[in-house]
Design goal:
By secondary structure, the chain is α+β, with helices and mostly antiparallel strands. It contains three helices and four strands, in the order E-H-E-E-H-H-E. It is 35% helix and 28% strand. Strand 2 and strand 3 form a beta hairpin.
């Protein structure tokens, strides 16, 4: 599992203007099985993605995010090998 932390580099108004394309990209990631979960940081300084695949696969996938293509966010990647799960979340380890 790969945890991706996005940090916005531009004003929130620019992020908001580009958010619809980013949301569509996230929805496609869910449909493709790459993305497991996504959400905004609080306060809204970026976001967090939980993805499956190799770190190289996730880096390549994130490079296609409209936020990345437009240079709106920085991305930090952390590979995690989960070993304990709450009931119902066991699939995160697959």
């Amino acid at each position: 599992m790969i945890v991706v932390s996005l940090s916005y580099k531009v004003d929130a108004s620019v992020i908001d203007a580009n958010r619809p394309a980013h949301i569509e990209w996230l929805k496609q990631g869910l449909a493709d099985g790459m993305l497991l979960a996504a959400g905004r940081k609080v306060p809204m300084t970026g976001g967090v993605l939980i993805a499956r695949g190799t770190i190289d696969d996730v880096r390549t996938w994130c490079a296609t995010d409209p936020f990345a293509v437009q240079g709106l966010a920085d991305y930090d990647f952390t590979e995690v090998a989960p070993s304990l799960f709450a009931p119902g979340l066991e699939s995160l380890g697959q």
